[in-house]
Write a structure and sequence with these properties.
Elements: H1 7-13, H2 54-66, E1 71-75, H3 78-86, E2 94-98, H4 103-112, E3 119-123, H5 128-134, E4 139-145, H6 157-167, E5 170-174, H7 179-182, E6 192-196, E7 210-214, H8 217-230, H9 236-247, H10 249-268, E8 273-277, H11 287-293, E9 300-305, H12 311-317, E10 322-323, E11 333-335, H13 347-353, E12 359-363, H14 369-381
Parallel strand pairs: 2-3, 2-4, 4-5, 5-6, 10-11
Antiparallel strand pairs: 1-7, 6-7, 8-9, 9-12, 11-12
Helix pairs in contact: 1-2, 2-9, 12-14
The structure holds pyridoxal-5'-phosphate (PLP).
Pyridoxal-5'-phosphate binds at residues 77-79, 102, 104, 145, 149, 174, 176, 196, 198, 208, 210, 341.
């Protein structure tokens, strides 16, 4: 294929090359655990599906291309991908992590990896000084989630990359909320990007998966080793589903964002809403940084209800917007992070960060935007 850097084209024509045998336009699902060896050690490129599988390879190749990295590895969930990346570290190492992160990442660091001797300090990664102050002699990496889940804070990826370079640290970015359609952290200086592919990449709320992409082949080999050694691979059926989802990423992301922009501005006008968190709003504290490092603002909005007592009834009354955790599917999903996705973070930490029971996280779907507004209004105003 003619060389292109354009994701809309890359996503359709990389890794998914037409099947050599029958010309199938969709990569076959190699539902197989092991592969014939003509003679001892003489394989046709694959020997056992934990180490490598053609369907998984196709997905990994396509994804490395759209994140503009050297190599990708697919895992059985976003958390398996994140765990594999942290397992690149040794006992005695230290990492600096965004203080507002997905609850599962926090739980992994504070209840599992700490027992393996990998320590984490959580800081406000929108504050470069705070990151620098947290760096210790044994610090090996900075892990940034941006925009953060659920407060939608935006960290300055170029500035953090420069700091990491100066201090000889790996920079790891959780790019789940933006997807490679809007943001490519590797092009801004990051070393490793992780995704919960369960979200926008799958896009249809029907697969749980994770992806890691590295800037260099060498780091990619280390992640691939972890994939093989710890075994948290993505199965061939799910790889195929993910590839099918990724093919329509560009059209879905455009529509998610179009709806989210319209809704964020409209929500700001409602007296029942106290505060709206969306990087696309001019009033967002890091709006200018978001504009400089990403091509769009995505489809995630958080907002606080003015009356905390109404939060549960508001969520229960919604009829089109579905009360469910997860995000990034074509259908609108809403949840209260303090009670669900972030419940594994201690209440005092949540309170300090501003993640209260009145804060709701809204994954804006691709429905008709007027229907979404109507649904919110009836849920806010019902007696
Ligand atoms: C930003 C972010 N990272 C990682 C994860 C974990 O992904 P998974 O649920 O696929 O394990 C999630 C899940 O919600 C997430 O929102």
């Amino acid at each position: 294929m003619k060389a292109t850097q354009n994701n809309d084209t890359l996503v359709l024509h990389t890794g998914n090359e037409i099947d050599g045998q029958f010309g199938a336009l969709s990569i076959p699902i190699y539902q197989v655990s092991t592969f014939l060896q003509d003679a001892q050690g003489n394989t046709k490129g694959y020997e056992y599906s934990r180490a490598g599988n053609p369907t998984r390879n196709a997905l990994e190749k396509a994804f490395a291309a759209i994140e503009h990295g050297a190599r990708a590895s697919a895992f059985g969930s976003g958390l398996a991908a994140i765990a594999a990346v942290f397992m690149l570290h040794d006992s005695g190492d230290h990492v600096v992590v965004s203080n507002v992160v997905y609850g599962g990442t926090y739980r992994l660091l504070t209840q599992v990896l700490n027992r393996m001797g990998i320590a984490a300090t959580f800081v406000d990664t929108t504050d470069l000084g705070a990151i620098e102050a947290a760096i210790k002699p044994n610090t090996k990496a900075v892990f940034v989630e941006t925009p953060t889940n659920p407060l939608m804070e935006v960290a300055d990826l170029r500035a953090i990359a420069a700091l990491c370079k100066k201090k000889n640290l790996k920079m790891i970015v959780d790019n789940t909320f933006m997807s490679p359609y809007w943001q490519n952290p590797l092009l801004l200086g990051a070393d490793i990007v992780v995704h919960s592919a369960t979200k926008y990449l799958g896009g249809h709320s029907d697969v749980v998966a994770g992806l890691v992409v590295t800037a260099t082949e060498e780091l990619g080999e280390q992640v691939h080793f972890m994939q093989k050694a710890m075994g948290g691979i993505l199965g061939p059926q799910d790889c195929w589903l993910l590839m099918r989802g990724i093919k329509t990423l560009s059209v879905r992301m455009e529509k998610h964002e179009q709806n989210a922009r319209a809704l964020a501005e409209w929500l700001c006008t409602l007296p029942e809403i106290k505060k709206v968190y969306y990087p696309g709003l001019q009033s967002h504290p890091q709006h200018e940084i978001a504009k400089k490092q990403a091509r769009g603002f995505g489809g995630m909005i958080s907002f606080e209800l003015a009356d905390a007592a109404l939060a549960d009834s508001f969520l229960n009354r919604l009829q089109i917007i579905t009360l469910a955790i997860s995000l990034g599917g074509v259908e609108s999903l809403i949840c209260c992070p303090a009670k669900t996705t972030h419940a594994s973070i201690p209440v005092e930490v949540l309170n300090r960060l501003g993640i209260s029971d009145r804060l709701v996280r809204f994954s804006v779907g691709i429905e008709n935007v007027e229907d979404l507004k109507e649904d919110i209004l009836q849920a806010l105003q019902a007696e």
